[in-house]
Amino acid sequence: MYVIGLTGGIAAGKSTVARRLVEHGVTHIDADQLARIVVAPGTPGLQSIRETFGAGMLNSDGSLNRAALGALVFADGAARAQLNDIVHPAVRVLSDALLEAADAADPEAIVVYDVPLLVEAAVGHPFDVVVVAHAPVETRIARMVELRGMSEADAAGRIAAQASDADRLAIADVVIDTDGTLQHTLSQVDALFERVSAASAQSTVGGAP
Length: 209
What we know:
Belongs to the CoaE family. The protein is built from nine helices and five strands. It is of the alpha/beta class.
């Protein structure tokens, strides 16, 4: 199995990169989706959130009030760290299980593990390559305003609450520049797929008895 670690700041085009890889047949594991699963109603994660932050973090039906929790943690670094301590270990357990299942199903599989907070969570998976989707802060703010209806101040705040571009780029083996046209981004992802396909095939041959 060959594992791509994919990360990028908010509105940096990471989802576009992941979708293109999936079109090439790559197996996709989404850390955001796992993070929702571990705080679903009835989970220990949601119970921990209630105990840590109060019942006001829940909707009337007992589900997580994401808007309320988001407003709290993006404005408070200590609260954000508390939330990460609840969510990240549970996500790690799920992602480990999914990676093991992918390997068992096809030892030659290529998997992209899509982790927005790869730097912040200090994800320790043994990635074969780390890919960073990157666009300047100004571009990302414009996308968040136009596509998500956020104010410039809120968009800037969300970006500031994440790892810096420098921290992400420091761990990158490959950088996908998403500041140009969609086709420019996709062509880079296509080249990445060719690269990892060749590397995966070589590692499989090299590891064969």
